[in-house]
Amino acid sequence: MSSTSTKFSTLPAKDKAAILSITGLAVLVRLYKIWEPSSVVFDEVHFGGFASKYIKGRYFMDVHPPLAKLLITLAGYLAGYDGNFDFKDIGKDYIEDGVPYVAMRLLPATLGVLVIPLAFLTLKAYGCTTMTASLGSLLVLFENALTTQSRFILLDSPLVFFTALTAYAWANFQNQPAFQSSWYWYLFLTGLSLGATVSVKWVGLFTIAWVGVTTISGLWHLLGDLSVTPKQYAKHFFWRAVFLIGVPVTFYMLMFGIHFICLVNPGDGDGFMSSEFQATLNNKKMADTPADVAFGSQITIRHWNTQGGYLHSHDHLYPGGSKQQQVTLYPHKDDNNIWLVENITESEVEPRDLAPVYLKDGDIIRLHHVKTSRRLHSHDVRPPVTEADWQNEVSAYGYKGFDGDANDNFRIEILESKSKPGKAQQHVRAIDTKFRVIHTVTGCVLFSHKIKLPSWGYEQQEVTCSKQSTLPNSIWYIEYNEHPLLPEDAEKVNYPKVGFFKKFAELQKVMWDTNAGLIAAHNWDSRPPAWPYLRRGINFWIKDHRQVYLIGNIFTWWFSTASIVIYVLFKITTILRWQRGYSDYSLASVQAFSNKVGTNVVAWALHYFPFYLMKRQLFLHHYLPALYFSILAVAISWDVLCKNVLKYKAISTLATIGLLVTAVYIFVTLSPLAYAEQWTKDQCENARFLKHWDFDCNTFPNDISGYDASSLTNVSSVQASIVGESSSDSSFQSTEEVLPRDEL
Amino acid sequence: MAPKIAVPEKGAKKVKQPTAPSTASTTAVSSAEAPVAKADEIIDDSSNGPIYLVAKPLTIAEARKEERYYNFALFMVTILSFWTRFYMLYHPDQVVFDEVHFGKFASYYLQRTYFFDVHPPFGKLLFALVGWLVGYDGSFLFENIGDGYVQNKVPYLAYRALPALLGSLTVPVVFLTMKDSGYSLAACLVSAGLVLFDNGHITQTRLILLDATLIFSMTCALYSYVKFMRYRNSPFGRKWWKWLLLTGLSLACTISTKYVGVFAFVSIGLAVIIDLWNLLDVDRGLSLKKYAQHFIARAFALIVMPFMIYLLFFQIHFWVLSKSGPGDDFMSPEFQETLGDNEMALLSKPINYYDTIDIKHKDTGAYLHSHPDRYPLRYDDGRISSQGQQVTGYPHKDANNNWVILPTVDFPENDRLGHPVNGGDVVQLYHTVTGTYLLTHDVASPYYPTNQEFTTVSPDDARGPRHNDTLFEIRLNNGKKDQFRTKGGFFKLIHVPTKVAMWTHTKPLPEWGYGQQEINGNKNSQQVSNTWLVDEILDLQDDRLNVEKKKVKHIPFIKKWLELQIAMFRHNNALTSSHPYSSLPPEWPFMLRGVSFWTKNESRAQIYLVGNPLGWWFASCCLAVLSGVFVADQLTRRRRYYVLAENVRNRLYNSAGFFLLAWAAHYFPFYIMGRQLFLHHYLPAHLISALAAGALLDFFYGNPGVFPVAYHAPGATPKTAEKKKGEQVESSVQRPPTMYPPSSLISYLVSGVIIGFVCGVYWFFKPFTYGDPGLSVPQVLMRKWMNFDLHFAK
């Protein structure tokens, strides 16, 4: 087995028959009634929605890379989807609007089916017998969570598929003689599928970590092999670097290239991006603005470090502190963002009939809010949210005709190092000059940070005056500038053009920050310790007395978790025994078990434990790639067991069949939750194997005949203001709400 | 300590190289075995096996001379250490930085009033002890940075003397650690000098802060462990036990000062695991029984005993803090009842049925309130209400806050008094002013479509069709069925049919609700903010009026400790707010930015915590080089090149490797900590990097390391060694004459240059360390290295 690759064409006839029949079975099981339910399920809200936005080309922001979403879009596009459905709420009907949702669902479903032959071939590459390889792939097939997840427009099925493809290619690569064409091919395939995995979700980085760890350990072994010359060693090193680093990185960036090509219009994701970035979108291109800022100019001021937006004020007061008018950051263009630069000696609102005097470093100004006729003001009052000693409140204060007071005075300090070299360092110019605004009386600087005001401030960003601020958060610049006395042909400026790499880098950072910010609790979230024993699932959809609830095949989960525990205990024991001089490792079976199961246990661990470090909301489906590796581990362990302990073929076959029957029985028992089928309350209660499984059995009728009567009345459409007892509408949430909130 | 990192390939049969005495503990023996040769002469004792580098042993007279040099150096280092730490200790005579906290805590201890803090008590108790010894009463509460000590008559010098003392003692312990690890005097001096002249260590250890205690305890733990390992060839001897127990004691003090002390446990723990792994080696010849003894001895001394000591400090903490104080609110009512003059213990009264009470929301302080106005038919967003009577939260005392607590089935007319309300009881609440009953139902509340509206209904409805909707369960937060009490009895009001919990929040209702708080039914009944309490019983007439002097209750220590421990961890995790001078771990080894502690405008003086940049960079470079040496060694050996002499390599791995491991254990865990971090969190790691720097220098000075770092206690010849090595062990000396490696002139020269430069930079930054003298703008600008954000730079 060791130097051949497990391609379908090279398999013996027995294996071909096995793989074909198992795949056929997979098609039946996985695609069964894929059109049900015919309304939006769980996160289809997001991923369906993204497909619409791709088709319309509207810019959006998501925490996941684009590959899987692009594939789903492609499936929808080919089936004739026009992007006019908004996937707004769970339970929204598809059929009425003629959405080709079946085509879109078929993409994850097909990839889900393909995982099963891949599992078979991977296990063959690890030297399993046909029987144990079949066992492993059938355990993957009859896994409720994988089934449920692959039937809807979600990203996890593509993720598991590409992870499985990586595992397949990598296992085969280990078996190839060095520098043969097949060696290059599998190395390339590994790199490509790694790139694809990480282009679906960032958890693909765990797969990369696994390949990385095994590569390093492989190189370490090669280093100890003195028959490998340094030149050969360098070659080993070089090709691995090319295929395992170069290929994935290129692929990943390529996906973002396509992403940017697709999204050319402004959309709801703009607010996440920098002004330079937004200026690259159609219709969002900003008109050139006069460069030189002078006394009497009407300007908008943007915060440089956060995407909070423009310095803003509106006719609402702070509920606490000074109770004066609020000053915030607001991300959208609005008349309330406009400020007039006043000289401290002049209090008229109108710009004076003088030639414009440029604003220089050290000039003292007042900022007059044009809409409300109040001036930017600060004083020794603690701000509304950040009640630190070193923070002062910033408000808008005064009234029409009021001359202002000393607390309205601010000094401009140009930051030469951050400004564009040249004129922008001499006096204030729109966009190019970055500056700080210093309150002359208290010496504090105008400051903002990523802290939102409560609902009374419309969740806009807090603006304060800080005595000890970090530099980046106190940098401002002028975006829009207008002065009535500037000549028509005055010099104009605009944002600099940004190229692909800059856009790419910026988007990565925004995705990372947004991802880290997803910490709000969710009704169905769970923490990693609960996953290996399947503590609870996720409610995907309830309607018309049927429901979809993500839950795994408890037998497979416990069996695979147990095999990992057994492996770890085995490993500890043998290592301790080895130190005491026992020679367990001289047995081929022990070595096989240790190495082959070991690499999959390492893969499981690398796909599982890093989640402990994540503070963001996590869900059961984050465990699925780890589950795949644990199933491989269990199949290989079973293989070793069959070959060495259950030596009689009859016994091992019987035992294998016993395992399969148990797995299928559990699968069938729980399957109505995956297929949204009719069920009765009693059947539902009987399927609740663990008491924490919180699917709602009360939605099901007592008797299957109940469906004839009730299917006519749609119970869950309760009047909006009434909190219906039976409906759990309020407990429904799709994950990952990242859309920015606009002003009310 | 950590011999033989590389494990032979798995699967291969275990073959030990017969020519290589590969473990550190045999170094002692190997010197006896190895033929005595002249210094630096290389003996190639096998054609392709490991090489040994052997130096000439010193005579007894030479060794004594060396010993005198060491002692003299130690003396000088100690003197300088005291001078640098105690210099101008009286300045500034104001509260500086976090003295706000720790000075305050000492005052609370002295006044014995209960307080709450996220750090364990040992370090704070020491300050309190100092205050108590000098007879201070703890009346000053260290409210603000800059408060004057002199006018408030605070014995701040005594307070500061404690950290200064511990900080001063840290330096000689560093020196001794290096000496006992067997390094040359030149190397010892560099390690000690890096700590001695470090502005960061000095600043942090001369103010009323916990770090001096932490760093001193940690250094002692490392030192004790190094000492312990020197006695590894006479296990279970008196000295072996002494240093093992001292290691445990120092570890206990470290973790009882701050929780980052757990890194010291990790450092020593890893070394112990590696040591135990080597003891397990079958070639060691230890029987499993003997091995179990080794195991149990370490487990006891390094886990069980430190934990008991840790608990002891909490016991003292509880014993001292016997009175009610600012920390009461963090604890449960049961806990509060154990404190003297606690409101809970004094004023709490039992509640009976038919009492008129007012109910207060714990978080917002609003009373449950109702008035005749009704909810508007339609809200702004188009949803409709029940138009029932409004139930709101109102922050002031008012007759409309009065509710009578009623049983679900009336007691007979003549027997209504004296029936206690217990936790878990189902009750009705009767609003006395409007004569209606509290109720909630499945109508959405004004602001929350997901939460239920609260309203009231007439008595007819309440007894008739709507009866079930007026039933509420009193669920005490402690989950017990005790009698329901005022003040202390935190509870949730759970609606019986729908299981929602009464809840309120601070967003005021619109005009129709007079800006009062919305009350609604929260489906997530577990939420902590659902907690209410009964403020008082109104019109109380019976004997409950006379407050009986309650006895202070007592609950078992373990229960108190567990409760406090959980509260501490919860609050520690909540410390995520940003601070202008907080920094991130990657910046620390490069000493990019400091922390401003104190400024004085008149004299332009400031205290700015900054490590000695040169010292930090040097130590960080040494860590990098050391890691490089390890990597290079592993790679070359993998290709069968044996560059390093076996004994040099052993010392490199066992001692320098141990330091590197300890440094990593004190540094990398910060990367995964979510809370705000400061430069001073790196100080323990910096101290260890100074040890590693010395070890690396010694490696470059070329000390062959043949001298036995381990020695046998008299008469305690280990049986196992006896078996294997026969007579030779018998003749091994108790204290071999070759104790100290001689330092060469060049090594003194190199060390001298390094220390000289470090000392110069220390002197340069001295004004920021001691807050004196004030500097002019160019002087400040001259010191503005890297990203130091100094004051008075303009």
TrEMBL record, chain A:
This is Dolichyl-phosphate-mannose-protein mannosyltransferase-domain-containing protein. The lineage of its organism: Eukaryota, Fungi, Dikarya, Ascomycota, Saccharomycotina. It comes from Lipomyces kononenkoae. Keywords: Glycosyltransferase, Transferase. The keyword Glycosyltransferase applies.
From TrEMBL, chain B:
The keyword Transferase applies. Keywords: Glycosyltransferase, Transferase. It comes from the Eukaryota. This is Dolichyl-phosphate-mannose-protein mannosyltransferase-domain-containing protein.
